[in-house]
């Protein structure tokens, strides 16, 4: 059945040609909810006609981003906007996130806890516990330059949805007796909105909510590794650490094991 759907979708893409948006509008899906367009994309050359025309192989670009090979970029390539949008809004992003969380849960379930309540798991906020897709869908999925004011206003609305995969990990860790710690690069002036948003989406019972000081200029790696060091100095054992940016995970102490969620929309250096 899946093969038949794949063939039908492939024919639909071919009939749409390479000059319009039709190739991005195929809606046939597999049983797991992942649009077939993601399976077809390599057959039509990486990134389709957008990638060929702009000499930007969008899936290879995303691979370089996720492996931290490509760094210090400001926006996604303009011709990859539809590619990234299709990835984020289709089933592929959720499928990749699910794969990461499945491994995180399997790891957590294998741990032998001390029983003293000192084991913690560090969570990032943006594109980790909370998803800003409602915002980025209106701003080119990262193709537009980042606007501090516009995004800040969005954060203050405190209505970003939870990433379901992360919520599943969060609840499982609590059931196992591992305490969540929320560590975000958001500034202190966003504390009230962040706490409100987390609570409204079901992120309750965490041990700490740590935000970046309002006026301190510090690199993200330095800030987050410094906060993790403070946790260890206070007697906590960081058994896990999850985030969407490499700056969430790099810098000692990283935690016993780190997990990188996908995010091709923006880069934090």
TrEMBL record:
Signal peptide coordinates? 1-23
> What keywords does the record list, in alphabetical order?
Signal
Q: Which Gene3D superfamilies match?
A: HAD superfamily/HAD-like
CDD domains linked: HAD_VSP
A Pfam family per the record:
Acid_phosphat_B
- Name of the protein described by the UniProt record: Stem 28 kDa glycoprotein
* Source organism (scientific name): Urochloa decumbens
């Amino acid at each position: 059945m899946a093969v038949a759907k794949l063939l039908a979708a492939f024919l639909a893409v071919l009939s749409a040609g390479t000059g319009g948006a039709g190739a991005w509008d195929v809606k046939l899906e597999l049983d797991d909810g992942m649009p077939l367009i993601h399976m077809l994309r390599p057959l039509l050359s990486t990134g389709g006609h957008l990638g060929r025309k702009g000499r930007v192989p969008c899936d290879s670009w995303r691979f370089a981003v996720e492996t931290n090979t490509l760094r210090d970029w400001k926006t996604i390539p303009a011709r990859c906007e539809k590619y990234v949008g299709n990835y984020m809004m289709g089933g592929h992003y959720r499928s990749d996130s699910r794969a990461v969380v499945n491994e995180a849960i399997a790891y957590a379930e294998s741990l032998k806890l001390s029983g003293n309540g000192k084991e913690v798991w560090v969570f990032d906020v943006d594109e980790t516990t909370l998803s800003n897709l409602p915002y980025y869908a209106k701003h080119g999925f990262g193709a537009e330059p980042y606007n501090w004011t516009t995004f800040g206003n969005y954060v203050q609305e405190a209505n970003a949805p939870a990433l379901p995969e992360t919520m599943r990990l969060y609840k499982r860790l609590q059931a196992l007796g591992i305490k969540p710690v929320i560590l975000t690069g958001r500034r202190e002036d966003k504390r009230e909105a962040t706490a409100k948003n987390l609570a409204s989406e079901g992120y309750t019972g965490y041990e700490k909510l740590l935000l970046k000081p309002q006026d301190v200029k510090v690199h993200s790696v330095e800030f987050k590794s410094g906060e993790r060091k403070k946790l260890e100095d206070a007697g906590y054992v960081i058994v896990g650490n999850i985030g969407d940016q490499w700056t969430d995970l790099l810098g000692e102490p990283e935690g016993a094991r780190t997990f990188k969620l996908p995010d091709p929309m923006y880069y934090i250096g």
